[in-house]
Design brief:
homodimer, alpha+beta, 60s Ribosomal Protein L30, Chain: A, CofE-like fold, 2 domains, 5-stranded mixed sheet, 3-stranded antiparallel sheet, 6 helices, 12 strands
Chain lengths: 253, 253
C-alpha cells in the first residue's frame, strides 16, 4: 500500500474573500490531479487566514497593562503581545524571546500562531495574520465545495507548524479537520502475538499533517496545498477538539 | 513533486542476531521495490531491538527502593519500573498510570520505551523489549549494508511512537538516523515578500517519522519498514542528538 503526497503548486496569492474551494479546484486541474473519493487535501493555515481577511495592523493596538508586563519579559512589541493575548485563553510560558499560550481554540503554541511572514507589506501599517476564526469550519467549507461541485467525498485538513516540548524543530500539526480522523483507536486490537497493545490511540491527523508539512516547506516555495492519496484509515467525522488533551490529564502546562 | 511512502511487507519475524540490512534487502526485492540513491528506509525500533536481542525477563529483576517507591505511585510492576529506571537518566513525571522519563539516549518518553507488545511469549519468563542500544549506530549499519551490497547511498531512520505534551494520540518520532537530516535550517531564507522567516528550523526527520508511522499501523499489520522516495531535502550526516532540546532551553520538564 502506498501513501502519495503531491504538491499543489500554482495557487495564486490569496486575497480576502477568495473562495478557497474554487481556487484549489482550479489548481488541481492545472496540476492534472484528478481528485477522487477518499483523497485528502491538506491546506496551510496561512492561505485560509488570508481568504478570511484575518489581518491585524498592530499600529492600531493599545497594549493593556498585562500586555506591557508580558512584553517586557519576552522582549516582544507590546502591541503584538496585546494581539497574542486576545487570541489566547492563558499564558503557559513567558520567557525572553518566548511566549507560549493556550490558543482560544484550545491548543498550546507560540505567539498564538500570530505571524508576520508571508504577509504582504503595506505602506500604512505593520500587518500580522491571525489563525483562522474556526479552522474546522474552514475545512468543512472546502470539503463541501468539492462535494457540491465535483461530487467527491474527500477529507480536508488545515495545518500549522508548531514547536514541541523537549525536541527542536517545528513540525506540521492539524488545527482543523473535516473528515480526516484525528485519533484512530487501537484499543481491543491485539498485536502479533495476541497481547493487548500498549498504544491505544494513534494521532493519525497529526501524522498526516507532519507528512504534508514536509512537502510545503516554509520559505518562498509557494506550496500551500498538498494532495494526499492512500491515507490508510477511513474518513470519519472529526474536529480539532478531538486531539486536545484534557487539562487534568496534561502534566506539562 | 511527490513524496511516496511504500509499505515493505513480508519482513519475517526477526530473531536476535539477524542482519537487518540483508533481511530488508530481500523484502524489498520480494516487494519489487528497486532501491535508488537518496531513497530512505524507515524502520520501527521493534525489529531493531529484536535483532539486537534487547529482551529483558522482568522475573529476574529485584526492584530497588526507588523502583518500589515509583511503582507505588504509577501502579506498575516494580520489576518493570526497575528496568525502566535503568534505561533512564531521570524521572520527569510519575503519576497514576504514567511514568515519563528522560531516556538514557536523551529524549523524553513514557516507560523509557520498554514495551511488552509484539514480544514473543516465552514459557520461562515475562519478557519485555528495550529500545536499541544505540539507534544511530543501528541505522548506520543498515545504511552501510546497502552501500556495500547494493551500491546505493540511502538514508535510514529508526523510529518509535511517542505521546506528546498537550495533545492526545501517539505519533511516529525519530530515535536514530543515518543520513536523514534532522533539522533543516531556514535561517536567512526570506518568505514570499522578502521578510525573514519566523520559523528557523524544520524538524524534517520527525515529520518523515510521523509520515512513515502512518503506514506502519500499530497492531498486527506487520509493516516494520517503509520505503520513502521523494524526500525533499538532501541527505546529510545526522544523529539523534541533533533533535534534543538543550535542557536550559526546555521549559516543559
Amino acid at each position: 500500500m502506498n501513501l502519495v503526497l503531491q504538491q499543489v503548486s500554482n495557487i495564486p496569492i490569496i486575497q480576502p474573500g477568495d473562495d478557497l474551494g474554487r481556487v484549489i479546484s482550479a489548481s488541481l486541474k492545472e496540476n492534472e490531479i484528478q481528485i477522487r473519493d477518499n483523497d485528502i487535501l491538506v491546506v496551510t493555515q496561512k492561505i485560509v487566514s488570508k481568504s478570511e481577511g484575518r489581518f491585524v495592523n498592530i499600529e492600531k493596538e493599545t497594549p493593556s497593562s498585562e500586555a506591557l508586563r508580558m512584553a517586557a519579559i519576552c522582549e516582544k512589541d507590546p502591541r503584538l503581545v496585546e494581539v497574542i493575548l486576545r487570541e489566547s485563553r492563558e499564558v503557559v510560558r513567558c520567557k525572553k524571546d518566548t511566549l507560549i499560550v493556550e490558543h482560544r481554540l484550545g491548543f498550546i503554541c507560540a505567539n498564538a500562531g500570530v505571524d508576520h511572514s508571508n504577509v504582504k507589506e503595506n505602506s500604512d501599517g505593520i500587518w500580522y495574520l491571525l489563525l483562522p476564526e474556526d479552522p474546522d469550519r474552514s475545512a468543512r467549507k472546502i470539503r463541501e465545495y468539492f462535494s457540491k461541485h465535483e461530487s467527491v467525498n474527500i477529507g480536508v485538513m488545515i495545518i500549522d507548524s508548531h514547536g514541541r516540548a523537549w525536541r527542536q524543530g517545528i513540525v506540521g500539526i492539524m488545527i482543523g479537520t473535516a473528515g480526516v480522523p484525528v485519533l484512530v483507536d487501537m484499543r481491543g486490537k491485539a498485536d502479533l502475538f495476541g497481547y493487548d497493545l500498549r498504544i491505544t490511540q494513534i494521532g493519525a491527523a497529526d501524522e498526516l499533517a507532519a507528512a504534508a508539512s514536509l512537502m510545503m516547506g516554509q520559505a518562498d516555495e509557494r506550496v500551500p496545498v498538498v494532495h494526499v492519496r492512500g491515507f490508510p484509515y477511513p474518513l470519519a467525522e472529526s474536529r480539532l477538539s478531538d486531539v486536545l488533551r484534557p487539562k487534568d490529564k496534561d502534566f506539562f502546562r
